[in-house]
Design goal:
alpha+beta, Thrombin, subunit H, 2 domains, 6-stranded antiparallel beta barrel, 4 helices, 31% strand, globular
């Protein structure tokens, strides 16, 4: 009887062991923007929660020129979209009520900037939003990107689609009115990181803020992409953030 009791206790201990932590569980304000375009092709970008109902991402992830007239867009809030169990959790998914993007954006003129989009949810996302920088940037040293992109060019060539939220350290090479340029380093941002935030501390010991979002680079992920400088577009973002909505008419 004593032996049986010990075996039973041991079995109970094993069964109550918590599951391993989810990959990519850090940085919950960074989310995946899932896209099925009008032709039925699936892909994803990255976005960042900037108010209770709003996710900031890249315009080229939402624009009619790239996803067609009737795309199916949703948000994934978990860290690993490849985890078959966690990916089905209702708490990891959020329905999209509306989208918007800078009307000056043109996918055929990416160097002109304006690669800025917003995704709105009907219900609060339940995630602490990150602040967006609105002041002119003069100099930045180190920062980091968080995104769901492919890990490296070799993975891209092998057909890997990414899907795990991961941080990458980045260094700033130059800042212009439209873009923040990154120094070349590895690993570098890749497909799936579009719309992902560049986070930096503007004050020593202060909180991280969103200073830019990944715009575009080469398809092989062999050079650093350009980053939209959010300070330039603060007037476009301000009224959306003040209302926490993209449905009401703009002032």
């Amino acid at each position: 009887m004593r032996t049986l009791l010990l075996i039973t206790l041991a079995l109970c201990a094993c069964q109550s062991r918590p599951p391993p932590p989810e990959r990519g569980s850090a940085d919950p304000a960074v989310v995946m923007v899932r896209i099925i375009n009008s032709d039925g092709d699936e892909g994803h970008c990255t976005g960042v929660v900037v108010s209770p109902h709003l996710v900031l991402t890249a315009a080229h992830c939402l624009a009619r020129q790239t996803v067609g007239d009737h795309p199916d867009i949703s948000l994934y809030l978990g860290g690993d979209a490849n985890d078959p169990v966690r990916a089905r959790r209702v708490s990891h998914r959020a329905a999209v009520a509306a989208t918007a993007y800078d009307p000056a954006f043109d996918v055929n003129r990416l160097a002109a900037g304006h690669d800025l989009g917003l995704v709105m949810t009907g219900a609060p996302l339940g995630v602490t939003p990150l602040s967006v920088n609105t002041a002119a940037l003069e100099q930045l040293g180190s920062a980091r990107l968080v995104g769901y992109g492919i890990a490296n060019p070799a993975a891209a060539e092998a057909g890997n689609r990414g899907g795990v939220r991961r941080p990458l350290p980045v260094r700033i090479r130059a800042i212009s009115e439209r873009f923040i340029e990154l120094k070349d380093s590895e690993p570098r941002p890749c497909a799936g990181d579009s719309g992902g935030p560049i986070l930096a501390r503007l004050v020593e010991g202060g909180p991280e803020v969103v200073v830019g979002i990944i715009s575009y680079g080469d398809s092989g992920c062999r050079r650093e992409p350009l980053v939209t400088n959010l300070a330039t577009y603060s007037s476009y973002l301000r009224d959306f953030l003040a209302r926490d909505s993209i449905l009401a008419p703009r002032n």
